[in-house]
Amino acid sequence: MTIQPGAMLYTQGFGSRPEGVEVPHIETRPPTYSDNIYDIGKRWVDTAGGIEYCLTSYTYVSGIKSANWAFLGAAAGDLNTLTTEDAVVVTPTAGNIDVIGTGSTTTTGAGDTVTVSLTGLTNHNVLIGAGTATITKVAPSATSGVALVSAGAAADPIFGTVSVAGGGTGVTSITAHDLIVGNGTSAVTLLAPSATSGVPLISQGAAADPAYGTAVVAGGGTGAVTLTGVLTGNGTSAVTANAVTEHGVVLGGASNAVSSLAVAATGTVLTGVTGADPAFTATPSGLTSITATSFITSSATVGTTFTNNSLTPTGSDANIDLLVNGKGTGGVIQSRGLVGGDITMEATNTDNTNGASRAGFEAAVGGTSAGDAYFQSLISGGQVFSWGIDNSTANDDWVLSKSATLGTSNQLSIDGTSGALLTVAGITAGTGNITATAGAVNAGTSMTATLGDITATNGNLSLATAGNKIVIATGANASVGTSAAMSGTPGAVTVATTASSATAKIFYARATTGGTAGQVSITAQDGTGFTLTSDANETSTFNWWIINA
Questions:
Q1: Is residue 137 part of a domain?
Q2: Is residue 325 part of a domain?
Q3: Is residue 248 part of a domain?
Q4: DSSP characters over 220-246
Q5: Buried b (16+ CB within 10 A) or exposed e, 327-349
Q6: Are both 325 and 392 inside the same structural domain?
Q7: Tens of pLDDT along 157-203?
Q8: Which residues span the domain enclosing 318?
Q9: Among 512, 479, 474, which Cα is nearest to 493's?
């Protein structure tokens, strides 16, 4: 209910009088300064906003009367006190609580909002405490990546170079390729590299910085700046560089001394001398052996010449004994042109009084993981045959190969374990076919082709002795056998065997007669078997044999 100003109210004891402040004025809006027709103390209720006001006074400016309405509270409840962080309860004065900034903070208001802000801020600056109420700021370094560094407990931090105490280096730049060397709590020391590539960094002891230089012997080096000739050790001192003659033979001397012989003349031989340096001399007068060290010992029994790696016997006795321990890929070679004569290598034991007096040649290898032990015959530009033990086979077979390599184009092979003949010039037994291309293959006892055929290309398979027979294995998928009994009307039986084919020749005859015997024929035939069918109701069994499948 809205009661306009001046309405009459009836009161007990006083009768009727005009209404003043007793009844609140109700509207759907808040009051304004022009709502100035009410008595002081009048209440105004804004039902739209849920807010109550009170007329506290009037103000006159240039004869214009303005109403001063005070905010009493909203529907959610009046604000009566504020409690600060230090637990002080602040109460309004004349209906108002001031929110005031201090130091580096300020407050602003707008409508129903109070904003508390910091003052004097600059983009990218770091805020630093400056007492209990104010803060200051530190501007960043103009150089990206510079750290904020403490200046101690009594000063603001700054952007700058991190000291060693703070985990930095204490320097503002490091030259490319320099090494960083520790310097206690002081800034690090920078060590420039040597101007010479390959020079190592050398320790100068525990009390000095390392330096680029020459590694001493104690550090695994030579102790020398330049090296020529042959080097010899000198304890913990620098090595000694010994000059030697180009193409000369290097000799060891006392106390690790090194020297070299003068370059020898072509064809001369280095000969040892007991207690002295060897020397190059003319070819010795007698030669009995050449050892692994390639030194030659001589005697007067056989005259020889040794020139350009060739050994030539001389004198009345032309036979010599040689023990050759070769080096690298070298071998023993006898090679010369002899018109109308033989060049031979011979092993002859002339004793004829003892059965253990033997002679032979041997080709041997180091073991089963080595290569082949073989001999070879060849015509330059023509045929070559090799024979020996093929070490690549499982049983180290003996083979004759029409090739420079055993195992290639084998003409004859014998099993290395059993001694059985495996291959003879196209006749193969064991894992292949036995074929007689234009002749006969004879076996004293038996002949077996385990995984292949026995073929007589231009001949016959002959069983030349009465009583000889062909023996064929029976069983599943055999080429010979006896069928089950026929059944059905008329009688029929199917034989299952993969020995059959659509083109095979199949011979059959009754094994046992059952029922009424009739005319029998093959009515079905393929790679899985065949079917025998009678024109009568018989239950006979049949022997059968398949050939040419």
A1: no
A2: yes
A3: no
A4: TS-S-SS--SEEE-BTBSPPEEEP--T
A5: eeeeeeeeeeeeeeeeeeeeeee
A6: no
A7: 988 888 888 888 888 788 989 888 888 888 888 889 988 888 898 88
A8: 283-332
A9: 512
